[in-house]
Amino acid sequence: MKTSRIARETAKITRNAEIPTNRLTRSSLTASIRAFAAEDAPKIAVESEKVIDDVSSLSSLSSSGHFDIEDTPILSSTPQKRKRGAGSPLTSARTASAVEVKTRLSPQKVKTEDGSPARIKKGRKQPAKKVVERSGEVTIHPPANWEEIYKAVQEMRKKVLAPVDTMGCETLAEETRTPRDQRFQTLIALMLSSQTKDTTTALAMRRLQTELPPPGLTLENILSVPPETLNALIYAVGFHNNKTKYIKATALILREKFNSDIPDTIEGLISLPGVGPKMAYLCSSAAWGKTEGIGVDVHVHRITNLWGWHKTTQPEQTRAALEAWLPREKWHEINHMLVGFGQTICLPVGRRCGECTLSTRGLCPGAVAVKKTTVVKRRSEKEVKDELGEVLKEEFEDAIAKGDGD
Questions:
Q1: 198-211 and 179-193 are packed helices; what angle lies between their axes, rounded to 10 degrees?
Q2: Cβ(331)–Cβ(146) below 8 Å
Q3: Diameter of the chain by CA atoms?
Q4: CA gap 338, 331 in Å, rounded
Q5: Residue 388, CB half-sphere, CA atoms under 13 Å: how many?
């Protein structure tokens, strides 16, 4: 390239002129370069004089009187594109191309269940409203369209099987065990499920049920198993080290305070290590058949806020907001319904709004339509020769976006 050639030729000039390294003035350097240029290198005289002019402009050198080849002004080392013009003759060219394909997302029309085209409609938020009556009593009015949304989600859940349907905590207790052991297994499954996928929880539960000494997963076996062995059996779940400690401590508390059974109250369940409100309400409902509150996990919290039913930042705030107006008979089923909906359609990342009937009916304020657009990048490289016969390379890149309908 042009910049590197100037540096090489400047170094050659300095060596051939036998310039002393300990003391060098600009006048001697100028005379040496001009002498060399007049005798041996007429074709680089113009470029050499440019270097001399740049050196003369450095104030630091004029004050010290010393000059070193490292002080030569060095231009950017990054390759610069060669400008095309009358002074840049091209003698030969060769082109090589490469194609890189990427995808991006952009809005798109979707189709309804019957195949007819329909555009996704973004709904309007209709949150629950707090109304103060004339008597001073505060009443919570539910979202105006909550029943329509609820029924639509129920219909969608019937068509798709979610992991929670077959591997949820409520399904993992062994039916052949005594009621007391089944309740204990349900509690352990819920403790393992925190920050863990249903499939991983189910595998860990299966290991406990089959690899612990007969009769398997019972309170007595958990009390006797070494912590290292228990940790190894539940190694796949999230935070397994902490959960090992919680399970061992819980087993001891159950034996000492609750007659080797799990508590039948929310307060008793929350008193156990590693058991929060969500686990307590779900365990009470699944193990004892007592629905005393809504178990709000990340799916329930996220989806109900996405629908605009309320604006909360914590699961406990979401639970209180829902319990203020949602009919009590739906408190147990809403968790299972929305967890499955969040696992199959309304995913935390990459929501499948094109498959959701709420988006086509204008019921979801968070509806987003996407399609894949292919971006094809073409790279080409050309080789050209300059006036000195050196081969220069130029790279070109262009991008072409193609949608599904292009």
A1: 140
A2: no
A3: 110
A4: 12
A5: 11
What is the enclosing helix (H) or strand (E) of 383?
A: strand 371-385
| DSSP of 327-371 | -GGGTTHHHHHHHHHHHHTS-SSS--GGG-HHHHTT--TT----E
Contact 401, 140 (CB under 8 A): no
For tokens 């979610």, the residue is: 162
Q: Are 230 and 248 in contact (CB under 8 A)?
A: yes
Comparing CA positions, the residue from 229, 172, 217 lying closest to residue 198 is 172
pLDDT in tens, 292-309: 999 999 999 999 999 999
Rounded Cα gap, residues 230 and 205, in angstroms:
11
Say how far apart CA 238 and CA 194 lie, in whole Å. Answer: 7
Q: What are the angstrom distances between the C-alpha of 202 and each of 128, 173, 214, 234, 396? A: 37, 10, 19, 10, 54
Instruction: Enter the tokens of residue 335.
Output: 């968790």
Enter the pTM of the model: 0.64
- Active site amino acids: 278
Bridge-based pairing of strands 110-111 and 391-402 is unpaired
104: left (phi over 0), alpha (psi -120 to 50) or beta: beta
Distance (Å, whole) CA 186 – CA 233:
17
Confidence of residue 402 (pLDDT cuts 50, 70, 90): low
CB 164 within 8 A of CB 179: no
- Amino acid identity, residue 99? V
